[in-house]
TrEMBL record:
GO biological process, one term: carbohydrate metabolic process
Positions of the Bacterial alpha-L-rhamnosidase N-terminal domain: 42-194
UniProt cross-references to SUPFAM superfamilies, sorted A to Z: Galactose-binding domain-like, Six-hairpin glycosidases
Ranges for domain Alpha-L-rhamnosidase C-terminal: 705-771
Domain Alpha-L-rhamnosidase six-hairpin glycosidase: 370-693
Name of the protein described by the UniProt record: Alpha-L-rhamnosidase
Pfam family membership, one: Bac_rhamnosid_C
InterPro entries xrefs: 6-hairpin_glycosidase_sf, 6hp_glycosidase-like_sf, Bac_rhamnosid6H, Bac_rhamnosid_C, Bac_rhamnosid_N, Galactose-bd-like_sf
Provenance organism: Paenibacillus terrae
Length: 786
């Protein structure tokens, strides 16, 4: 929505910007405005945005980092109350702005337009509400191009464009506080746009829809190893734990590897003095590993803490020290880093260097965790904790596949992550932004992009269908009719694309070659990058099955918003697809399994899973298919990504007791000392991938058994899965309030207690299939004699 105050301030930029600047991966500009205030108190609220990113300061204190990730037609701004940062006398408001070039890769999840710019709208009022000053961006702001920082794309973080090489001698230290001499700075140049006849500015300002990211000071927990004799481990620990300054002699080279205790995302912080011309190199790594097979894609990893036989791999940030004597010199990379371990290499020249601070500010989405889980299996508690950490590290201004390598929001990953978030927090703000993100990515052909926001378009056809599942999930959890109406046209567009792709057999045909028909990471499909090998022969059966499943979900959403006719059409289309799959893709000679492609005797777990989820097979027939599938060791198996759907198929066929044995890959990761879940076993690239946090759903929605029975949690269903456990208890977040479940079983009875919202009906399904209905979910106890 356009804002009526937008014309009061101008978008500004430096007047000496050239095409050479645009040819770089990214460049920084410093902006500041000095103003005076009489004695307060004062009230000041500002609205701020930039192309491409900014960090805003008031009197040297960071007050905002943004803008929130959007795209060309949704350019977010932040609203910040800066009242507490103002003082009587001279004040400074300042911004460091990073401009990513439209002609280079940069950070692919950060949009950029044809123009660079900074926008600030700010009014200062006295205690009576009268305006006393304006902070709007215009010619009164001064600016200077940075010449100290060079950004590169990196070898490991190739999607990000955040690797820095910095010459401290060229940095404008204390440029954002009062007293700085900006005599060499230039007046900012405002843009002027003709918007009288509907022409849009490059930036369509929209208020940020999610909270600001948290930034919390943290310390490293240990020194993993020291690789020199100049400085002892104890000296490093004194610096890390007790802020005891650490001096490194002149003409020395020291190396230390620091341990944060678990994987994290944060802004590294260094403060130092003297040490002119010292070179400081910082390498952030997820773990110790063997020599990569192919950087960064194929890795060899075992015990992630093994510093004896493993090494740290990653890109280096390099800082060359200016050598300040009378004050601290500080360095902080502009973008957050992902790390458990940080390798710091220091090479001094003719002066000793003294380190006064070496720590970090942890950042991420401020998720308030409400849900919890415990059980008779101690390992499950570890799985829960690691899963929660994984989810949190893959949440920033969007959901992310991985925080280290890409920081991109992919639809398949995100559908699962959103469900995990609902159950542990009940917070749907980031989910709502995600729905809009993918809606905004819709292409004229009718598919959404597979990852978005992304400056580099990519299409994975099946990922458009996961977006439909996301919307259906929100309908069931939150029951927001207006939200479903908002996206119904885009749902229709995706489904109509698939309808146009039907061939003469009634199956979804082969996808265009420019699209990536990724399904899952398996060893058998490694050479084809996650695409079933049957694609060489023609269309994929799984596309037809996923299309049918999405049609059924879309039909339920259509009913929810009063589109009965559309719902009937979608159900009929789903039935026709399922009939065509049975006729063309079911093997007679392989126990009735479905082939990966029509007429080709190749099979996979993935195809059988979606045959069940699409209701192509039902009841006892579906159960037999899943039993055959689990028993067949010769076919491609589900990765961490597809395991969520494998578990849904097992739950749908009353085979959920088989899930316990399927946690083995997660158990192995625990033994290998991961603190988050890895991407897959094929590449072993990322050690933190959001789709692996499946226990957050399984333990709450299946073992505790809490699920919405009707849209908006109009009624609650609790169906505990006893698994191999003797007891389980926990709490699940819902929009109606918390639902607590505790159950235990003995030789003679099964006792379950539920305490949920008082005004919400409860359906309790017991392990023997017995169904009990209660008018209220509050304070329910039931004893089943076994």
């Amino acid at each position: 929505m356009l804002v009526n105050w937008e014309e009061e301030a101008k978008w500004i930029w430096t007047p000496d910007w050239t095409m050479d600047d645009e040819n770089k991966v990214g460049s920084f500009i410093y902006f500041q405005k000095t103003f005076n205030l009489e004695n307060g108190p004062h009230q000041a609220e500002i609205k701020v945005s930039a192309d491409s990113r900014y960090r805003l300061f008031v009197n040297g204190v960071s007050v905002s980092f943004g803008p929130c990730k959007g795209d060309r037609f949704t350019w977010y701004y932040e609203t910040v109350d800066i009242s507490s940062f103002l003082r009587a006398g001279e004040n400074v408001i300042a911004a460091q702005v990073l401009r990513y070039s439209p002609m280079q890769d940069g950070n692919e999840s950060v949009w950029r337009t044809r123009l660079a710019g900074l926008y600030v709208h700010g009014i200062i009022r006295d205690s009576a509400g009268h305006m006393v000053n304006q902070l709007h961006t215009d010619e009164s702001w001064h600016c200077m191009k940075d010449t100290a920082i060079s950004l590169s794309q990196g070898i490991y973080t190739v999607f990000l464009g955040i690797t820095e090489e910095v010459d401290g001698l060229k940095l404008p230290f204390e440029w954002n506080v009062s007293g700085y001499d900006d005599g060499g700075w230039l007046p900012a140049s405002p843009y002027r746009f003709d918007t009288l006849h509907g022409a849009l500015k490059p930036w369509v300002l929209t208020e940020r829809a999610i909270p600001l990211m948290k930034e919390e000071n943290q310390r490293f927990s240990n020194v993993q190893r020291v690789m020199d004799s100049e400085v002892s481990s104890d000296a490093w620990l004194d610096l890390l734990y007790r802020d005891v300054p650490l001096t490194i002699p002149a003409h020395s080279r020291v190396i230390a590897e620091l341990d944060a205790g678990e994987l994290t995302t944060g802004f590294l912080q260094l403060a130092m003095s003297q040490g002119a011309e010292t070179k400081i190199s910082l390498l952030c790594a997820e773990c110790y590993e063997q020599e990569p097979k192919l950087v960064p894609w194929m890795r060899e990893k075992g015990d992630r803490t093994d510093s004896e036989t493993g090494s740290l791999c990653g890109d280096y940030d390099i800082y060359r020290v200016a050598g300040m004597r009378d004050k601290f010199e500080t360095y902080e990379p502009f973008w957050f880093r992902t790390f458990r371990y940080v390798r710091i290499e220091i090479e001094t020249k003719g002066q000793p260097l003294t380190l006064h601070q070496l720590d970090y500010r942890e950042t991420g989405y401020p998720l308030e965790v409400i849900g919890h889980f415990n059980s008779s299996d101690d390992l499950y508690s570890k799985l829960w904790d690691i899963s929660l950490r994984t989810l949190q590290l893959c949440m920033h201004e969007s959901y992310e596949d991985c925080p280290y390598y890409e920081q991109l929001q992919y639809a398949m990953d995100t559908r699962s992550q959103i469900l995990f978030t609902y159950n542990v927090s009940g917070d749907d703000r980031l989910a709502r932004k995600t729905f809009y993100d993918f809606h905004s990515s819709l292409l004229p052909q009718g598919l959404t992009q597979s990852r978005y926001p992304s400056y580099a378009p990519q299409v994975i056809p099946g990922f458009s269908l996961y977006w439909i599942h996301m919307l259906h999930d929100h309908m069931m959890y939150y029951g927001d009719v207006q939200l479903m109406k908002r996206y119904r046209s885009s749902v229709d567009a995706v489904l109509d694309y698939y309808d146009r792709m039907l061939d003469e057999r009634g199956l979804v045909g082969a996808m265009p070659s420019q699209y990536w028909s990724f399904i899952d990471w398996t060893d058998e499909w490694k050479e084809s990058f996650g695409v079933p090998t049957v694609s060489h022969h023609g269309p994929l059966t799984i596309h037809s099955l996923m299309y049918a499943a999405a049609l059924r979900k879309a039909a339920e959403m259509a009913v929810f918003v009063g589109r009965e006719g559309v719902a009937s059409e979608y159900r009929e289309r789903a039935e026709r697809i399922c009939t065509a799959v049975v006729a063309n893709c079911r093997s007679i000679g392989n126990s009735g399994m479905f082939t990966d492609g029509p007429g080709v005797e190749l099979f996979s777990q993935q195809t059988q899973i979606w045959a069940v989820l699409s209701e192509t097979v039902k009841g006892e027939e579906a159960k037999q298919l899943m039993e055959i599938t689990l028993a067949n060791d010769s076919i491609p198996k589900s990765s961490f990504a597809m395991s969520f759907y494998l578990f849904r198929a097992l739950a749908a066929t009353n085979l959920y007791d088989r899930v316990h044995s399927l946690w083995e890959p997660w158990r192995k990761m625990v033994d290998q000392n991961l603190t988050t879940w890895m991407e897959d076993t094929v590449s072993q690239r990322s050690d933190c991938h959001g789709w692996g946090a499946v226990p957050l759903y399984e333990f709450t929605s299946e073992i505790l058994g809490v699920q919405p029975e009707t849209p908006g949690y109009g009624s609650i269903r609790v169906r505990p899965r006893v698994d191999h456990l003797t007891w389980a208890k926990g709490q699940v977040a819902t929009p109606k309030g918390q639902v607590k479940v505790e159950w235990h079983r003995s030789e003679g009875e099964f006792i379950v207690r539920v305490d949920g919202p008082e005004q919400t009906p409860l359906t309790l399904i017991l392990p023997d299939g017995n169904i009990q209905h209660f008018k209220s979910a509050a304070s329910v106890q039931y004893i089943l004699k076994l």
